[in-house]
Amino acid sequence: MKRNTQRRGSIALILIAAFLVIGGLSTPGEAVLRPQTITGDVEKGMPWVRLEKDMALQAGDQIRTKADSEVSLLSEDGSVFYIGENTELAIQALEFSEPQKTRVSRIKLLWGALTAKASTLSFSKNEFSVETDTVVAGFKFSSARFLRNDQGTEIYPIEGTFEFTTSSTIPPGQRVVIKIGAQEIEMGPAATLELLVEAGRTRVLRVRGMVMMNGQQVEEGQEIGTGAAPTRALREEMPREEERQEFEIEYDMPPQTDADSPSASPVDVTDGTTQSSEDTTESEEEESEE
């Protein structure tokens, strides 16, 4: 009788141990963000300490940059975050497990400027979002720039599929604006907008609630044009050349023509040669002597 009891106890312990091992393997590991480039005064909190390149950032950490300061962060899944000056954000969730095909990344922008590029992963659980106090932006193979200031939230979708969802209330004087080239889309409270941005074209996949552009309600299936001026302005605000290479985002700007070059010389259109003022004077003197 005692032997049977001991055997049952041993079997129970083995089953419990196996359950714990399997459960441990099925739980995605906590991911980290690692600084790639740091310029100026960048801090990690809390408590606030100076951010160094050898530090790892986890869920629950906060980051803030001072004036003329910036930092780029790389996730284990290959996603990239560029944080501009005078910016503060909180890392709400970071998970990554390649065996379990799981990626979770949630960043809250409290103030300032953030550019985010989600890596291309076909995982069964794939959550990537950036949010402010008034809007949540879900990404799918996407990249976008976010601005949070005293006027509200501005979002510049660059490429990919996006789902924007606003909070149930938006404080007076605040706006949630999606900028597509020269167009501005303003979202009201408790609204949803899903966009596909690719090859310079933007198409509305889904819309719910008050989503306005040029005083009219945005409709599902609507095509939204882009303009050159905001693209140039966005390019000027994007990271420096090395950060652009990290994001792998191409920005096609008009090539410089000869007319734009300050060193261009006057050309004689008759024979394609450049004629100086000295040559002209000598030829005139020879004609007068004859």
From TrEMBL:
Domain of life: Bacteria
Basic and acidic residues bias: start-end ranges: 233-247
Residue ranges annotated for the FecR protein domain, each copy included: 61-160
Region (Disordered): 220-290
Ranges of Acidic residues composition bias in the record: 279-290
Pfam families: FecR
This protein's name: FecR protein domain-containing protein
Lineage: Bacteria, candidate division KSB3
